[in-house]
Design goal:
By secondary structure, the chain is of the alpha/beta class. It folds into two domains: 2-103 and 294-324, 3-Layer(aba) Sandwich (Rossmann fold), CATH 3.40.50.720; 107-284, NAD(P)-binding Rossmann-like Domain (Rossmann fold), CATH 3.40.50. 32% of the residues lie in helices and 14% in strands. The chain contains twelve helices and twelve strands. The strands form two sheets. Strands 8-7-6-9-10-11-12 form a seven-stranded parallel beta sheet, with helices on both faces. Strands 2-1-3-4-5 form a five-stranded parallel beta sheet. Helix 5 crosses helix 7.
Length: 325
């Protein structure tokens, strides 16, 4: 039995759980540390494997790929959802999809979002590069003090609520908008409910905390970006396609908003020659929102449990129970 661990970019998967439990049962384990170049590449390299362990939304797993993997018998997924995995196609083939428990309460992503906000507000990335190059203050603007500024939250759910509480601790004025947000829910989170247009016009820091779907894809486009203040910071730790990437590039070149702090992108990993990498008014991190040693340990421990349960003929935590019918 062959098991593939996909997208182990940091070489941490095998250190994060007791995989020996599976090896003792004859399971051969291979960790892939790079992203597949294409669906054809994925199909060719995954052809020998009966079990595939997916890291959430890193490698897309559509029906077309599943149909090209005749040996596939089990898919395990870290987290509880992945729009890029066609669980129905797996079910039609009788392939169970096991998920892991929710191990991240949102703390990891929220903390990263605030790291990006502070880095952008004080231009820490440029300052750090300058220091390493032997410089001092050259090229640095004055920076933004957060106290007294407006934090605009596009989305006020679990993560948005965390952002609001921390923003209040910084002494920021908190405002929010989302398609279904009510004045009462906003007030309960300590935020003022604004119209979408007003939020973009008035926010000094605008942070996105929405789920990607048909209603939110491209929600932040050229019109919204043009309304932002020249000194404003746009932060996205949610999903790249919520922001129109071409519009964002054009807006940043015009200096409105003044800075973008991004952890997510239309295409991941971000191509080495992507124009975002060349702009000075952008702070970039490689989709680290949920990435932490604590989360990895929980994800992969549950993954080992899921594979062992399937080997015992008792697959658990199924996204597609119809696969067993």
């Amino acid at each position: 039995m062959n098991l593939a661990i996909l997208d182990d970019y940091q070489h941490l998967a095998l250190q994060s759980a007791d995989w020996e439990r599976l090896r003792r049962r004859g399971v051969e384990i291979t960790a892939f540390h790079d992203a597949f170049a294409s669906e054809e590449d994925a199909a060719a390299r995954l052809a020998p494997f009966e079990i595939v362990c997916l890291m959430r939304e890193r490698t897309p797993f559509p029906r077309s790929l599943i149909e090209r993997l005749p040996r596939l018998k089990l898919v395990t997924l870290t987290g509880v959802r992945s729009p890029s995995l066609d669980a129905n196609a797996c079910g039609e083939r009788g392939i169970p999809v096991s998920h892991t428990r929710v191990s991240d309460t949102g703390a990891a992503t929220t903390e990263l979002a605030w790291g990006l906000i502070i880095a952008a507000a004080r231009d820490l990335a440029r300052a750090e590069r300058g220091m390493r190059a032997g410089g001092w203050h050259a090229g640095l603007a004055g920076g933004m003090v957060l106290e007294g500024r407006r934090l605009g939250l596009l989305g006020l759910g679990k993560l948005g609520g965390r952002m609001a509480r921390i923003g209040a601790a910084f002494g920021m004025d908190i405002a929010a908008w989302s398609p279904n947000l009510t004045r009462e829910r906003a007030a309960a989170a300590g935020a003022a409910l604004l119209g979408k247009q007003q939020l973009f016009e008035s926010a000094d820091v605008l942070s996105i905390h929405l789920v990607l779907g048909e209603r939110t894809r491209g929600l932040v486009g050229a019109a919204e970006l043009a309304r932002m203040k020249p000194g404003a910071i746009l932060v996205n730790t949610s999903r790249g396609p919520i922001v129109d990437e071409a519009a964002l590039l054009a807006a940043l070149k015009r200096g409105r908003p003044g800075h973008a702090a991004l952890d997510v992108y239309d295409r991941e990993p971000l191509p080495a020659d992507h124009p975002l990498r060349k702009l000075d008014n952008v702070t970039l991190t490689p989709h680290l929102g949920y990435v932490s040693s604590d989360v990895y340990r929980a994800f992969y421990a549950d993954t080992v449990d899921n594979v062992e349960a399937w080997l015992d003929g008792k697959p658990q935590r199924l996204l597609n129970p119809e696969a067993l019918a």
